[in-house]
Amino acid sequence: MTCILYNRKLLWASFSFMVQKLVVGNWKLNGCLAANEALIGACGALAGVDMAVCVPFPYLAQAASLLSGVALGAQTVSEFQSGAYTGEVSAEMLAEMGCRYVIVGHSERRTLFGEDDATVGRKALSVLRAGLVPIVCVGESLAEREAGRVMEVIGRQLGAVLGSIGLQQLSRTVIAYEPVWAIGTGRAASADEAQEVHAALRRWLADHDAPAAGMRILYGGSVKTGNAAALFAMPDVDGGLIGGASLVARDFMAICRTAAANGDH
Ligand code: PGA
Questions:
Q1: Domain with 57 in it: what CATH number?
Q2: Is there a domain that residue 83 lies in?
Q3: I need a labelling partner for 87 at 20 to 30 A (CA). Which of 35, 202, 234, 258 fits?
Q4: Is 106 tagged catalytic?
């Protein structure tokens, strides 16, 4: 029974279950008004794939006014709703600016800005309370991988989010598996490595009573035009979180087209 709950192939065979792929650009700390206009101007919606771009806060209004058929997202958020928190941006503000998605727990936030598992859980909760969709990033370091601790680390990271938001809200989140060693390094996980972790992640979700088969698990970390097809062909890879390649319109659109061509599993 558990098998049927999380196994995409079985579900596909029995119910023609469909989840369209989602490709999300993460611009990180990049952009300026002129470059953004050119980049967004060259990116348009495609049939068969959901697309989003997560831009720096100051450019949300500009991106909201230029995007068409591509969802808007932010790269982080405050865990607080309002008050004396200088420099913070709330999820309600992001909703008002037209965001649909918010990345939480990106490894750069965890390692460079000291966000721990509990903080990531609280941020995911604030995003959900504002009616937005958190893209919860999880992933292991190279040392953790080499020590055979991949699922232990990811389970801990996801467990903190589940503890904060609860089971019902977990089903409304998107999960992004981003091995830290693959982010911005040019060394992506192989399609088989990604599939192995995605399948284990889906099993983890099913074991925690989440509607695992219908949840989206994106892969992120050095996704490029050259490796997107192999990654998106994997049954448990439901799309991608794209950093560097999302800054080049031609590459981002090619990756999105590849996702559309790989359809659903
Ligand atoms: P990358 O970044 O595609 O540049 O490796 C991915 C991410 O950090 O989300």
A1: 3.20.20.70
A2: yes
A3: 35
A4: yes
Residue 14 domain-assigned (yes or no): no
Residue 8 and residue 213 in contact, taking contact as beta carbons nearer than 8 Å: yes
pLDDT of res. 12: 47
Domain that holds residue 159: 19-240+248-262
185 CA: nearest ligand 1 atom: 5
What are the E-state strand segments in the chain? 21-26, 49-54, 71-74, 99-104, 133-138, 174-177, 217-220, 239-242
Read off the pTM.
Answer: 0.94
What count of Cα atoms within 13 Å lies in the side-chain half-sphere of residue 178? 30
Give the pLDDT confidence of 238-252 residue by residue, as tens digits.
Answer: 999 999 999 999 999
Q: What is the pLDDT of residue 265?
A: 56
Residue 4 counted as domain residue: no
| 8 A C-beta contact, residue 252 and residue 246 | yes
Q: What tens digit of pLDDT does each residue of 147-166 get?
A: 999 999 999 999 999 999 99
Atom of ligand 1 nearest to the CA of 221: 5
Number of domains in the chain: 1
124 contacts 173 by C-beta, under 8 angstroms: yes
